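Q: My labmate handed me this sequence with no annotations at all. I'd like to see what the chain might look like in three dimensions before we decide whether it's worth expressing. Could you predict it?
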Amino acid sequence: MTDIHCHLLHSIDDGPSDLEGSVMLCDLASENAIETVIATPHLRDLTEIPAFLAVRGERIDQLKKELKGRGVPLEVLPGAEVYASDDIFFCQELAGATLNGSRYLLIEFDFSGLSVNRVLRYTDEVFKAGLVPVIAHTERYAFFQEDYESLNFLQDRGVFFQVNASSLAGGGGREEFYLAYEMAVNDMASFIATDAHSYRGRPNNMLAMLRSFPPDIKRSSLDYMLNAAPQAVIDNQALPPAVRGEIYRRRH
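A: Here is what I predict for the chain of 252 residues:
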């Protein structure tokens, strides 16, 4: 499996505080059948992309050297989780923060006080930069939880969606679970990722989470979200064809 969203680099964001913590997450990933991860530290200041990329490169090099020395069979690739704010309208360097240097940009938003119209403007700006927006942990936003149909609109514009494995396993609360479930079972989500931050607090124990997923999510859909679509991102290719369904909020 490939994990396109995880925070396993040390001393760069709210992930591990030291190299040993990074290695522990990498060990856990490998034990859970994850072969490749895209390290996606938070990039919150779009005016400091070159400095961010320099630090990220140092952390990846340190981690790769340590993993090689310990014989941990995990490939670590560069990425970022980009915080979309109004700064995005003036940023000329977004391409440096994509997933493994591809056309795909993982973006997140403020969890409160944000409208779907603002999300639309931010994603349109990503398209204008010649990139493809992938919304991180889509199910966690209250404005999407209240308005499922807005995701149908974004999907029609070519936006892709990532959901967290922990949400599908029921670890994120009722509303997160229902939205993640509807997206996964209707093939709207293109990626499942761990969004791991720490070995004990927010781990990447993917196999344990998979065992807690609703049983009616098709195996072929899981393979698409965990293998085929992530590999296309790594290779900077178009995602494999998929019939991406629409979703509508049901009262549970």
